[in-house]
Amino acid sequence: MELILDHVSHSYGDVTVLDDISLSVGSREIVCIVGPSGCGKSTLLRILGGLEKPDGGAALIAGDPPSDSLNPLTYVFQDFALLPWRTVEGNVSLVLEDHGIDRARKREIIADVLARTKLTEFAHAWPRQLSGGMKQRVAIARALSVNPAAMLMDEPLSALDSQTRDLLMDDLVDLWGQVGFSACYITHNLAEAVRLGHRIVMLSRRPGRIREIVEIDIPLAERANHPEETAAIQRRLWEAMRDEARAADRELSNVA
Ligand SMILES: Nc1ncnc2c1ncn2[C@@H]1O[C@H](COP(=O)(O)OP(=O)(O)OP(=O)(O)O)[C@@H](O)[C@H]1O
Fold it and tell me: 212: exposed, middle or buried (C-beta count within 10 Å: 0-12, 13-18, 19+)?
């Protein structure tokens, strides 16, 4: 299954947020979207997920989701969005309800995703007992449990400290090696994009237009062993983005 944005434009009132965006997220592909504050990254993700209808162009899905997919698209948010009154297991089980799955199969799916996200021993813990990194693992386990064709990830690691973020990036790389998920992954953090993205789509400041698409052909699992190449890509992205990021920052502070 492929997610496609075809010449998408969008405005809120008089403010044009996205201008003529065309991109695709293929099967087993992680596409990272980077760009200055307010350039429309979250809007793009909502349009891709069908939560918002674009003013111009179209969000399309080509091909079929995996046959056992319960939900073709799932979101992972920065703030984890866990229910505090449900345990880890209960939070995952929530998204499996109303799909007509029998209890044994549900238990099997939950055990599988908790194992993949290294949460087995925390199955009965409450969200308040977990660190930020663990909470985000639960959110990722929950997203994976429906076997989505693609995950829509809106700055999933940005609420975490840098060490936890590094650990979770390693976990996401491992997970991708195991289940080969597809994702559209929004981030402010270029190091994250260079570590996790098969392709990086760089947007201009608002109205967001595609400035550049960078394809990284170093396999995800090997990137940690190529610090010089990845640092060079990150530097180049930052050089291309710096002036726009500064201008966007000034623009936003003027508004405030
Ligand atoms: N529902 C809405 N109604 C009106 N304006 C909106 C709405 N959603 C977003 N905007 C505006 O659209 C612009 C783009 O917002 P969006 O959140 O998509 O950008 P972003 O690149 O994700 O921002 P950031 O990097 O700061 O998270 C911003 O100026 C924002 O204030």
Answer: middle
